[in-house]
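User: I'm curious whether this sequence folds into something compact or stays loose and floppy. Could you predict its structure so I can see for myself?
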Amino acid sequence: MAGALTGASLLAGTGIAAAEPAAGNGGPDRFYHQRLDWKPCGDKGLDAAGAQCADVTVPVDYARPGGRTITVAISRLKAADPARRRGIMLSNPGGPGGPGLDMMLDVKKAMTPDVVSRYDLIGMDPRGIGRSAPVDCGWPVGIMLRSAGVDRQAFERTARLEADLAKRCAAAEGPELRHISTRNTARDMDVVRGALGEPRISYFGWSYGTYLGAVFTQLFPGRSDRIVLDSAVDAKRYGSPMLHDMGEPNEIALDEWATWTAAHDAEYHLGTTRERVRALTEDLIRRAARQPIPIGDYRLDQHVLPMMLFNPLSDARNDAVLAHTVRQIADAADAADGKHVVPNPALEKDLSFVYKPRPGMQNSGQAAVLCGDVAERRDPEWYWRNIQRGRAGQPVFGAFADNITACASWAPPAERQTVVRNPVPALIVQATGDTRTPYASGVALHRAMTGSRLVTLQDVRVHAVFGNYPNACAEHAVNTYFRDGTLPEADTTCRDD
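Assistant: Here's the prediction. I'll summarize afterward.
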């Protein structure tokens, strides 16, 4: 989801050699040798699985390890066979802003028994998220991401909202907000490694978690073991270019969904052709611009309606869910005064996510990471010009993918953006129909990580493969690598089962 660094040495500012503190070199050694107090997690799923949780103390600012500290929450599912145990596998579910304590409960279902037997599976709420000193900016909304709307007046409203969100974060969190960043989360991961007494980390990440994993390999190449990056972010385009790159694949996915929905018109009555389904959907956005659509406890406006399409489009298995959602929105728009349309559970969940603030999940913590990683353009006119250029080819998602965010009003990041280019071995898994991290982004990360192999899931629209979308070929590649450390001899293409 930001501009790439230019003209800089690939190692300048990233400190490959200096990033791995050792005893006696002035690094924050005391954090690496702390004792952890393992307890029940207080989470139904984790406790039922026999996991334990602990808080790991880390410095707020690694440049000042003697200053204020916070704790980062981790969970541990111990290796099923201690005699065959290889080490630890950390993880991240994406976002940024996704809490990850329970992530491995689902991912382990795709792992073979001989992989589960070898690793302590470590979940983690990254700093600023969940149980790890969560950022809470006191926002009146759920997340900062919005569509710009249909006209200049609507764009200016979003620009004012985003500036206000940034102002609220600065007032609520103060200067320490600058230390909520991917680089510091990667450093926290290394402290976790040290506190667990392990020489290296294996890792599994989805989506943004691939960027975090790639940054870890750049900062700590000698401490990276078996790394799997699923649905990968192009590190060079992290930030606003990453958001921009979502526009085109989501328009393509919307066409695919409209074709499917037209074939099921007898059930959804949204149109008998792809063109009619699409026209109805685009018209709903224009209607929401004229007057927000009452649905349940919400008034669905032009800025949020595209988000209700964006979320289910990431997985073709949700096509029926999306058709039902659009049918409900259309019914609500057509409803006579006094008629109340109750959103289905999927739509209610998505509406709540965008409209209602919840500090423990995404929300202002997501902004803190994105805006703390990359310095974004500050001039609203730059965003407006991009939105206008994209409307013809991306009538639904262009105004979302190119919109201004709170990052345009954020304080400058504490550090430069990480340049990822290294030979650390890794397995990158990417679906060609991915709408969140387009296929080209996985290819680009593969090129930047010269020791990696790429597993392509061909002709499947899904975001997050292993542990989410069953595929024997992809699962075999991931499990073989985690079990034996064996990467495919060459890049591999998998077909849908």
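Summary: The domain at 29-134+177-237+419-495 is CATH 3.40.50.1820 (Rossmann fold). The first helix runs from residue 29 to 32.
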